Amino acid sequence: LWRCLRTAEFVGTAIFLCIALGSSFKWPLEQPSVLQISLAFGLTVTTMVQIFGHISGAHINPAVTLAFFVGNQISIVRFVFYMILQVMGALAGAGIIYAVTPGEVRSTLFVNQVHKDVTSGEAFMVEIILTFSVVMCIFSVTDKRRRENRSYAALSIGLAVTMAHLVGIYYTGCSINPARSFAPAVILGKFDPFHWIYWMGPFIGAIVASVVYNYVLCPQRLSREERLAIFKGFFAPENNLQQTPGNRADSRWNSEHSSQVLLKNSSLSVIVFPGPL
Known about the structure:
It is a single chain. The chain is mostly helical and 277 residues long. The chain has helices at 2-22, 34-52, 62-70, 76-99, 120-142, 153-171, 178-188, 197-217, 224-232, 248-254, 256-264; strands at residues 234-235, 269-270. Strands 1-2 form a two-stranded antiparallel ribbon. The chain is globular and about 60 Å long. Pfam families: MIP (PF00230).
């Protein structure tokens, strides 16, 4: 299981950076537009979520992983490993597209930069707002407690990322993903003086979104013991929680009986369940 999770997050992030950054290159015969770049980022996210969502959750973004950790939906171990794998995957993806592209085309590698007429405070706020919007969408469309069909989740998330880029590119190049900003900067050895914005902005936006959704708008009905079990990575075998096909996650959130089984079962096993996106 761990091998699958590691592979999914690493490969998913690498493919995302490789394709998304490649869409921004300025070829002699065709200059990319903001719409083209925004759609490339959004559609690539949609594709990665569709491919890897059922395996690892397809976070492919340290800010998203932080949001799910703050929301008490993944363990501390998974949080740390995902963050590392996402950064490594981003470096691999950016390195690959840089290596296979002609020098005059790959020169900028779409490194995030704050627009000259935008202050650091304004750029910081833009990154917070855009990340907040995307993460709120992720929580909403992947919430296992929702009764309606969630088959549109991947497309919804991709459209949210597209929306963010349609606005954010003009201000900061649109990060909303620290790994996406870090990798090109490392490959080129070119760090913007305000590079911290591309970490702190998405992280704060993700934390605020997690708190608002998971503790204010749609709080989870979990006891302190259950929250601690999730934090540590302890959870009852999934078969104990499955009631009907395709409804395993709903029973985890809504069935008080299953919660009691979780707490009283003396044979708790250490596992990392796929969980939400």
